Amino acid sequence: MLMTILTILVAPNPLLRKKAEPVALVDASIKKLLKNMEETMYAEDGIGLAAPQIGVSKRILIVNVPANVGVDGDLIEGIKPDPDLFFMINPEIVSTSDDFATCQEGCLSVPKQYASVTRHASVVVRYLNEEGKTLEREFKNLQAACVQHEMDHLDGKLFVDYLSTLKRDMLIRKANRLYQKL
Ligand code: NI
């Protein structure tokens, strides 16, 4: 099988800062893009990927996290791991929990840098799936953190933006130095 591995943009690439456009129609080109994004995410060992990260300014993302993984990375008893793969087009937050959870986050666009980010512990998201069908679903635990992280990419926001300017600039600089050496 022929795989398509797309190039992932690394901060401070300005394309990562653009607000992405909604998808008007889920057609064959969008399905192809989703498949390429999926293959790229697996190749890079990511747990999520948003279209702006591959230079496509569209409101599309993938999340690949089992439902039974907590924000600390540990497995939670009593929750089924499936489903663990979500294709989301034009996702919108419908509601958020009042409680928050902190997670050690990383990003393929800020390679090999990690920092704690606090987000809503659960979110309800409305989105189109890969068939163009409207779905609404509640995400919790690590899935919730990942969905919020990937949705931020659609608005040109990176996880390092939750840190101090000093720390943010340092992580981007370090990631970029690493990237230049590859
Ligand atoms: Ni990211």
Q: SSE layout and pairings?
A:
Blueprint: H1 28-43, E1 48-50, E2 60-64, E3 85-96, E4 100-107, E5 110-120, E6 122-128, E7 134-140, H2 141-154, H3 165-181
Antiparallel strand pairs: 1-2, 2-3, 3-6, 4-5, 6-7
Bound molecules: nickel (II) ion (NI).
Fold and architecture overview:
By secondary structure, this protein is of the alpha+beta class. The protein has helices at residues 28-43, 141-154, 165-181, and strands spanning 48-50, 60-64, 85-96, 100-107, 110-120, 122-128, 134-140. It has a five-stranded antiparallel beta sheet. A two-stranded antiparallel ribbon has the order 4-5. Nickel (II) ion binds next to helix 2.
Please name the CATH topology: Peptide Deformylase
**Major beta-sheet overview:** 5 strands, antiparallel
How many separate domains? Answer: 1
By secondary-structure content and strand pairing, the structural class works out as alpha+beta
> Strand order within the widest sheet?
1-2-3-6-7
Give the strand tally.
Answer: 7
CATH class wording: Alpha Beta
How far is the N terminus from the C terminus? 27 Å
- Low-confidence parts: none
Question: Architecture in CATH?
Answer: Alpha-Beta Complex
Concise synopsis of the structure shown:
This protein has 182 residues and is of the alpha+beta class. Helices cover 26% and strands 29% of the residues. The strands form 2 sheets. The protein has a 5-stranded antiparallel beta sheet with strand order 1-2-3-6-7.
